[in-house]
Amino acid sequence: MSATPVIAIxxxxxxxxxxxxxxxxxxIVFEKTARFLETVDEDGFPCENIESLRxxxxxxxxxxxxxxxFKVKAVNFSAYGASFIYVGEDGKPLTPLxxxxxxxxxxxxxxxxxxxxxxDKVSVQTASPALGSxxxxxxxxxxxxxxxxxxxxxxxxxxxxxxxxxxxxxxxYSDLTSIGCHTCLWDFEQNRYHEWTQQxxxxxxxxxIQPANKxxxxxxxGNNYKVGIGLHDSSAALIPxxxxxxxxxxxxxxxxxCISLNPFNQQPLTxxxxxxxxxxxxQYQGKPVKASRLFSGNEHEQQVKRIAAHxxxxxxxxxxxxxDPEIINYLKSKELSVEQDPRAKISAFxxxxxxxxxxxxxxxxxxxxxxxxxxxxxxxxxxxxTKVKRIFVDGGFSKNSVFMHLLAQAFPNIEVFxxxxxxxxxxxxxxxxxxxxxxxxVPNDIIQLKYYSANQTIDI
Length: 460
Fold this sequence. Notes:
By secondary structure, the chain is α/β, with parallel strands linked by helices.
C-alpha cells in the first residue's frame, strides 16, 4: 500500500504546541500536542523554553518520518506573534525568547515616542497601538539600549515562526504576517519598514522579506521535502476564509479575545480608531486587514462563574443554553438599573444586580445581550465604509446559540454564519504553500457553515 502524501504543520501557541499531518483533502491524519515547562530570562521573568521547542521539532519529525503510512511532502509553521529570537553568526540564540507580557520600561517608551514624533503619530503610521512589549519592534529597541554588546552580535532577528523554519533550512527570512502585526516596525502609509528602524540600525538585523508561499529545500541531505517560512497565527487563521470566499466578509475570531477582522478594509487607521483598540494586520498576500478587539471571552468566563455562584448551579450548564426569544423580548422591555455603553470595552453585566433576574437562564441571556451590544460596536468599527455581505464567527462563541441569534438580529442586512473548521490556523499554514505539496485542487468544504437569522438556524 502506497504512503499517503501529507504536510506537517507545527502550530505553536503560548500554552500548547501542536503538530498536525494533513492529507491532500485537508483531513487531519495525525496529531500530537505537547506542553513545555517555561524557563526564565535574566530578570527571572517566565519565558518560552527555546531549547525544548527546538528539540521537539526534530524529535517529532523523526517520529513522523518513521511512519511508513505517510510521505511528508512539506513542513510549515504557525506561531504566536510578538516573539523575537536573536540569532548570532553561529545560528544559535543569543538571548532568551523574551515574553511579550513582560513590562516595558516606561522611561524607554517615553524616550522612543518622543524621538519619533509622539505616540499618536507613530501608532497611526505603524497601525500599532502602544502596547509595550507586545510591540515586538520595541523589544529590539530595548535590546539595543539595555544590552548593546548583545545587539551588536545579532546576525538575524527572527520572529518565532521564521526561527522554526530556519532550524530546518538554515535560511533566515522575514515574513509580512509577522512584521505586520502590532510590531511598530511597518509603516502602513509608506508600505515599508518605518524610518525609525533605519535610524536605530534595527533594519540591518531583519533578514529579507519573502512571500508567504515561499518554500526552501531542507538543510539535511537525503530529505526532499519542502519547508515554508512560517506565518503569524492570526493571519494564518484567516487564509481558509480568503481562499474559499471572495465576496467581502468579516471574520469574528472568538476565544479569550474576540477579534473582528476585515480583509476588505484597507482604509488607514485613525487616531480615534487606535484609541478604540483597533489595529491593522498584514495578511499573507501583503494587504492590510483592519481589526478591532474585545476581551469578551475572558469576561464571559468570569461572569458565568458569578451567575453559577449566585443561583447555586454548575458552570457546565451554560455551555449549551438554548436561545429563547421570549426572554430577550422581556429583557429588552425591562427598565434596566445599569445602562450599557456600547463603546465600552467591557459589558455592563458586571455591574448588574443578579437578584433582579427571575432565574439563571434569564441572567445568562442578559450577559450575552450585553456582550453582543459591545460586539456590535466593535465589529462596526471595521465594518464602516465597506460592502461586507457576510459575517463569519469562529471559535467559542460560534457554538453559542444565544450569541449567534442576537448577533444576527443586530446585523439584519448582513448574512451571519457560525463557521467551524478543525484547526483553522494550521490549515491556513498548509494552504499558504498548497501548490508546493498538494496535487489536488483546494477543497471547497474545509469550512462548515451554519446560517443564523433572527429566530432560526440553517446548516449549510
